[in-house]
Design brief:
The chain is α/β, with parallel strands linked by helices. Helices cover 47% and strands 23% of the residues.
């Protein structure tokens, strides 16, 4: 035990020592302060966080890392950089053009970290000039040779380890043109004006990359590049297709072409052939093509005589291994005929040639053997403006233009692949596919026969079965009713359709689950089907209904039978717990010439309006038609502003002064006449239109308050009702903010009832509380309406930022005849005052009620005794008289 404890202590000590070691600042690197002239030769960008983006700064960062420094960039002006370098505030200046003014006393690195193209005067020809490409370097003070040597050595190591690093940076920053657009300088525009044709030479011997079709027209992937140049620059690109690079050089030397369209990036080769290279515009990926056998130890390589052979293949293979052929197709033929063992071609070319079926014995694994960056070469005899224009065009279209064209060609090649090439390449798979297809046909025929029988059986079941309860459904019920009446027409007058529904099925499902509701409907349907007074029973599980065809001699007997059935099923056993299931029923008699379908529709009407058991009458249909008419007119009425905002005053009971008002809505319809709110508000709350109407009323009240201030009329707080639908409405707060910006919340209160927070989910309730807090934060007063009308959640008084408690009229009426209720009223008023709220009671109609409220401590009231709801003009007059 002791040895084990000692080992534990020793291990913990080693762990602690290791943490101390790794937490040590010994690895911290020294800083290299690099001055960056933001208005200098290099195009340097700086974001909002102060980060710098450019070829020179990225390159300087990489060199500093190899030298073991942590870079600290100091962006400044050119003059400040010179001064700071001289006094030692900074160590290095990035992006300096040697020989320019102010570079005296500086020493420059060996390798450039950027390039500048610009117009420079020729000292020998003072009236002329041209565009040149000048390198930019990093500079140190002339006395700091040790740092310069250190940075040069780091740059050498960077280029040894990552030879393509600088080219990669150039490509990355070439993409900026896609973001900033194609912008030509005035000199570049002046060059293009008299030169509407750009002569271009291209080696066109490789399909589908670059080739000449049967009509002698240049085609292929590179055609995308030339078409974009014509489209973007508004010029004509005259393409001279040639079979090899020797012919291309001849065209450039003769002056018939100024641009070599496509060549691997090789600055040395370009200098030898008097070419300026543009930025790379495409990366060619080469893949190996071989026969269907392993390669020998020293394979013979078939190649065309071009820069790829000189730069890549000769560095990998000896001269006696390489055999030169005129075209890529000849190279692939040589591999197929065993004159050679391998050839390297572009991936798209290899795919195209193999998919055509001409080389069935050749394969490629699709991997990239090597890649070459392709650029265009501009003759040094051509004006430098042509080079800068092409560079800007390449940056503008981006590398994706050619890459996407290659992808399209590859897809087209694959879709046009010959069947013979597929069969030859994969014979075993083709045979397997044919056999599989035959077996599938046999299985399909047998399966079709079985499925047809099953489908017929399932269709019959689906037609007659309620998918929710798996009992008989409405369709079956309608057919049964029609058949029963057709067989016994004399009994039709003694039949009725009864629809029995579960109230608030949404609450039942959310509380106990849909399965429990379906089980309850099945039990009730089975019991009713066994009753003597029923003929047939079905269910409509999706809406929680049972449909019954009932015998009836008189309506009283039918209602009695239904009530007895309700008592039997009023309580259901759900998971071992007995719960009450509230039921309602709608009844419609089948009286000829009424059809069963029409009777079911009428029973639906009655069920939707029933509180218990309701028999259909024609007034229900009239109300339904009115509701339908109201819904068809609601949008048009809102546009025509047929809804009128009326105001019912609120007053100080003691002084009889008007201290506020409640905004109420009336509808003066052109089609329906004058409608009180009870005719349309409940419907609008059901169909959701109440949301639009609330915003309409609120804006009218806010405009009314604005007008009162402008007219010099008294301004009192006006409360506007807000429906509970707003509490879960998307974009509600945004609309309220818009109204606040347009008007003002001064003198505006929002009235809410406790039903605004009556949500089954805790998340919904919390969201509603958050919405109220946000409204209060916008400056709206918040009033709690109808307080004491039922079960009051007193916890809301602590959660909500309430300004006013509005006592419901029912509490006032109850207090008139009961001392206990007067005590309740008094305590409610005291509670509101204790919480800092204004307390007001609605529904005051007598002077005795006023005195009662004063004794209970309620100082404000609203009711017909003081003032009825009135139109805006009447309320303005009332305000002047009672303010």
């Amino acid at each position: 035990m002791k040895a084990h404890a000692i080992r534990n202590v020793f291990g913990i000590a080693l762990l602690f020592a290791g943490l101390l070691f790794f937490a040590s600042p010994a690895d911290a690197r020294p800083h290299l302060r690099v001055g960056v002239p933001m208005q200098g030769a290099a195009a340097i960008e700086q974001d909002a966080a102060g980060n710098l983006y450019s070829v020179p700064t990225d390159y300087a960062h990489a060199v500093a890392n190899y030298a073991g420094y942590e870079v600290q960039f100091v962006p400044s002006t050119w003059d400040d950089c010179r001064t700071q370098l001289a006094d030692g505030t900074i160590d290095v200046v990035a992006g300096v053009l040697p020989g320019t003014a102010g570079t005296e006393g500086m020493a420059f690195g060996r390798m450039p970290l950027g390039w500048q193209r610009g117009f420079f005067k020729d000292p020998q020809l003072p009236n002329e000039g041209n565009y040149r490409l000048h390198p930019l370097y990093y500079a140190v003070s002339s006395g700091n040779t040790a740092l310069l040597a250190e940075l040069d050595a780091a740059a050498d190591r960077l280029m040894e380890n990552r030879p393509g690093f600088y080219t990669m940076l150039e490509q990355v920053y070439a993409d900026h043109g896609q973001r900033f657009g194609l912008h030509l300088s005035q000199r570049e525009k002046d060059y293009l004006a008299p030169h509407p044709v750009i002569p271009v030479v291209v080696v066109a011997r490789e399909q589908p990359f670059a080739y000449v079709d049967e009509d002698g027209t240049f085609q292929g992937t590179l055609r995308i590049f030339t078409d974009r140049i014509e489209q973007d620059l508004g010029v004509q690109v005259r393409v001279l297709p040639v079979p090899d690079f020797a012919a291309a050089e001849a065209e450039l030397a003769s002056g018939r072409a100024q641009v070599l369209l496509d060549n691997g990036w090789d600055l040395g080769w370009a200098q030898e052939h008097r070419l300026w290279f543009t930025a790379p515009f495409y990366v060619s990926n080469y893949t190996a093509v071989t026969r269907r056998e392993s390669l020998p130890g020293s394979p013979i390589v078939a190649a065309v005589d071009n820069r790829t052979t000189a730069r890549v293949l000769r560095s990998r293979y000896s001269d006696d291994q390489i055999r030169i052929y005129p075209t890529i197709v000849d190279c692939m033929k040589a591999v197929e005929t065993r004159e050679a063992d391998i050839t390297f071609v572009r991936q798209g070319t290899a795919q195209y040639q193999i998919f055509q079926g001409d080389f069935p014995d050749l394969v490629t694994d699709g991997t990239v053997a090597f890649s070459l960056e392709m650029a265009s070469g501009v003759s040094m005899d051509a004006p430098m403006e042509l080079l800068t224009i092409l560079d800007k065009e390449i940056a503008y279209i981006g590398p994706e233009a050619i890459s996407n064209a290659v992808a399209r060609h590859d897809k087209a090649s694959e879709s046009s692949r010959s069947l013979s090439s597929i069969a030859y390449a994969y014979p075993q798979y083709v045979m397997l596919a044919v056999l599989t297809l035959f077996m599938l046909v046999v299985i399909f025929i047998l399966n079709s026969i079985t499925m047809r029988r099953t489908h017929v059986r399932d269709m019959v079941r689906l037609l007659d079965e309620d998918q929710a309860t798996h009992m008989k459904n409405r369709a079956w019920f309608q057919r049964q009713v029609k058949a029963f009446i057709a067989a016994r027409p004399q009994l039709a007058k003694d039949l009725a359709i009864v629809l029995i529904g579960v109230q608030r099925t949404d609450i039942f499902i959310s509380t106990y689950g849909r399965d429990k509701l379906m089980e309850f409907l099945r039990q009730m349907a089975k019991a009713l089907d066994d009753a003597l007074w029923t003929e047939c029973v079905a269910t409509h599980g999706s809406v929680g209904e049972v449909i019954v065809l009932a015998h009836t001699e008189d309506m009283a007997t039918l209602k009695k039978n239904l009530k007895e059935a309700f008592k039997q099923h009023e309580f259901a056993n759900v998971g071992g717990i007995v719960v009450r299931v509230p039921l309602t029923a709608g009844i419609a008699l089948i009286a000829p010439p009424l059809t069963p379908n029409e009777a079911i529709q009428r029973a639906d009407f009655a069920l939707h309006e029933a509180q218990d058991i309701l028999v259909y009458d024609d007034a229900m249909l009239a109300r339904a038609h009115l509701s339908s008419r109201i819904e068809s007119l609601q949008e048009q009425a809102l546009k025509r502003e047929e809804f009128e905002v009326w105001y019912q005053p609120k007053y100080d009971i003691k002084t009889k002064k008007c201290v506020g008002a409640e905004a109420l809505v009336r509808w003066r319809s052109e089609e329906l006449g004058f409608l009180p709110p009870g005719k349309f508000i409940p419907l609008f709350e059901r169909n959701g239109f109440i949301s639009q109407l609330d915003f309409y009323n609120l804006e009218h009240v806010m405009r009314f308050q604005q007008d009162c201030r402008a007219k010099g009329l008294p301004v009192v707080p006006v409360s506007v009702n807000q429906s509970r639908v707003h509490m879960q409405e998307q974009g509600y707060l945004a609309k309220m903010r818009d109204l606040v910006m347009k008007y003002s919340t001064d003198g505006i209160a929002l009235e809410l009832t406790e039903t605004a927070f009556d949500f089954t989910g805790a998340a919904q309730r919390e969201h509603a509380l958050a919405v109220i807090a946000a409204l209060h934060g916008l400056g709206f007063r918040i009033d709690m309406d109808d307080f004491g009308s039922g079960y009051s959640d007193l916890s809301l008084l602590s959660y909500l930022p309430l300004d006013t408690m509005k006592i419901d009229r029912s509490l006032l009426l109850a207090s008139e005849g009961s001392q206990r209720m007067r005590s309740v009223l008094q305590k409610v008023a005291e509670l509101g005052h204790t919480l800092g709220m204004t307390v007001i009671c609605e529904g005051i109609e007598t002077a005795s009620q006023e005195r009662l409220l004063i004794r209970c401590g309620c100082e404000y009231g609203q009711g017909y005794l003081y003032g009825k709801p009135m139109p805006r003009k009447d309320f303005e007059t009332f305000l002047v008289a009672h303010a």
